[in-house]
Design goal:
The protein contains 21 helices and 5 strands. Helix 14 crosses helix 15 and helix 15 crosses helix 17. 45% of the residues are buried. The structure holds flavin-adenine dinucleotide (FAD). This is Deoxyribodipyrimidine photo-lyase.
Length: 487
């Protein structure tokens, strides 16, 4: 009567759906994580997310051991393997002689495919595979229109989401109550969590960032954020201000429960906190994009709106050079460049800046949104296929409930509005530090005397703009007009 819980993007032991269901159903519950070479092999050797996961596994292991120890179970804890998960997991389940494997839903297309293979292999071994919702509040077809179709516009989706919400959906799974079913790890399964080096990775600068890992790290960030949540609606707009929660990677890897976060926000919103209501709305966006991906998996490499698959993006050597300048923060537009330095140095980028640089890539440089999406996918610590794809298609105007194509962000106006004093720009572009506030947003407009006073040689320490925004705007309007003819 044994079960195995397979942890994937749910690296915590509290309020964890799969763990709860396994503990309730079986008498001997093992817990495992597989460093999946199918996911890890294509990544760069220094990847903050791998280090974050490794740190989080230590936290999860500690939680599991403590829960087991409270029931007098001596060798509790996490079994960690390294290999192709589609093979390793069924092999481990077989070794442990369990009757069932429990996991939580992962609706990314690659994960669906992997899970189908795992399910097939387990079934050949006579082992059942159960999975549950855990990653979002409402998934798949839980929130539909009155006529039973999925929503593709956010506001009515959000209204329906809020209407459906009640304590049942936000209640925590009482895992601890059933922890007596945790099993001792067999002797051959007690090796420590492998080091980064052992799985072929290098140390990154993660330890210098304010991103503590694991459930304890999530608690720290949450506690800090709850003191600021009432001002979130205002503070979130300005990249130089500590406005958002920075919980993205914790939500991505499930070191904190979405039910707990939504509950905290909902409770405060009900008492009139505008900040909490706005934050809850962001969590709803997260669910929204997950259900879009579920119902419209073509968005992974196609525009949500088919006519926009005909958009003629720039190609060739010049386009490649523009793309490289964008990636490396050499566009000559300070806010864009500072934002790209932020993602390159930390793996984080402020939401406002994600919109600004995505708009710049697609509408100022005329480059395919998929190039930017792929860049974010390798660099963001909180990379989540559904949200990243949704965000990119929103900015590129190809998405479901997207920015209209004729509303094109002016990167200088965005800078003047959201980083008026140039604080954020100065943090990442110290060579511009001496420019006065009003010139820092567009240094090419500064007079030679101002540049000299700021000790700045344009074209040397900092590039001249690689495109003219006005001209680019015209080209973008034409590009979209041509595509619209296919509608
Ligand atoms: P907070 O502002 O504290 O928000 C809390 C949580 O709500 C976030 O962690 C996230 O899970 C969710 N959330 C917030 N905004 C959104 C949104 N617009 N869409 C979906 N979920 C949201 N978010 C990701 O989680 N992963 C991505 O890969 C990602 N890529 C993006 C790409 C582009 C081009 C754009 C415009 C946005 C993207 N976002 C992505 C959404 C948003 O920018 C980040 O979630 C947010 O900046 C993360 O910081 P935070 O945790 O401090 O967020």
């Amino acid at each position: 009567d044994g079960a195995l819980v397979w942890f994937r993007r749910d690296l915590r032991a509290d309020d964890q759906a799969a763990l709860y269901h396994a503990l309730k159903a079986a008498r001997q519950v093992y817990c495992a994580f597989v460093f999946d070479t199918a996911i890890l092999d294509p990544l760069p050797r220094a990847d903050r997310r791998v280090e974050f996961i490794r740190g989080s596994l230590a936290g999860l292991d500690a939680q599991l051991r403590a829960m087991a120890a409270a029931h007098g179970i001596e060798h509790g804890g996490l079994i960690v393997r390294h290999g192709d998960a589609a093979h390793e997991l069924p092999r481990l389940a077989d070794e442990l002689h369990v009757q069932a494997v429990y996991a939580n839903h992962d609706d990314d297309p690659a994960a669906i495919e992997r899970d189908a293979r795992v399910r097939g292999r387990l079934s050949n071994l006579g082992i059942a595979f159960h999975s549950s919702k855990d990653h979002v509040v409402f998934e798949r077809s839980e929130v539909l229109t009155a006529t039973g179709s999925p929503y593709s516009v956010f506001t009515p989706y959000k209204n329906a989401w809020l209407k459906k919400l009640d304590d049942f959906y936000l209640g925590a799974y009482p895992v601890k109550r059933y922890a007596g079913a945790l099993a001792e790890r067999p002797e051959g399964c007690r090796s420590p969590i492998p080091s980064l080096e052992a799985i072929g990775f290098e140390k990154t600068n993660l330890h210098t960032l304010k991103l503590p890992s694991g459930p304890v790290g999530a608690d720290e960030l949450l506690e800090d954020f709850l003191e600021r949540i009432d001002h979130y609606d205002q503070a979130r707009e300005f990249p130089s201000v500590k406005g958002p929660s920075y919980l993205g990677p914790h939500l991505r890897f499930g070191t904190v429960s979405i039910r707990r976060l939504a509950h905290e926000a909902h409770r405060r919103a009900a008492k009139g906190s505008k900040g909490a209501a706005t934050w809850l709305s962001e969590l709803v966006w997260r669910d929204f994009y997950h259900q879009i991906l579920h119902h419209h998996p073509h968005v992974v490499d196609h525009a949500f709106k088919p006519e926009y698959d005909t958009l003629k993006w720039e190609h060739g050597k010049h386009a490649d050079a523009l793309f490289a300048a964008w990636c490396e923060g050499r566009t000559g537009y300070p806010l864009v460049d500072a934002a790209m330095h932020q993602i390159n140095q930390t793996g984080y980028m402020h939401n406002r800046l994600r919109m600004v640089v995505a708009s710049f890539l697609t509408k100022d440089l005329g480059l395919d949104w998929r190039r930017g999406e792929a860049y974010f996918a390798t660099h963001l610590n909180d990379y989540e296929l559904a949200s990243n794809n949704g965000g990119w298609q929103w900015a590129a105007s190809t998405g479901c409930d997207a920015q209209p194509y004729f509303r094109i962000f002016n990167p200088v106006a965005q800078s003047e509005k959201f980083d008026a004093e140039g604080k954020f720009i100065r943090r990442y572009l110290p060579q511009l530090a001496n420019l006065p506030d009003k010139l820092i947003h567009a240094p090419w407009l500064a007079r030679p005397v101002d540049l000299a006073a700021a000790d700045l040689a344009l074209g040397k320490q900092y590039p001249a703009p690689i495109v003219d925004h006005g001209e680019a705007r015209g080209k973008t309007m034409e590009r979209f007009a041509a595509a619209k003819q296919h509608a």
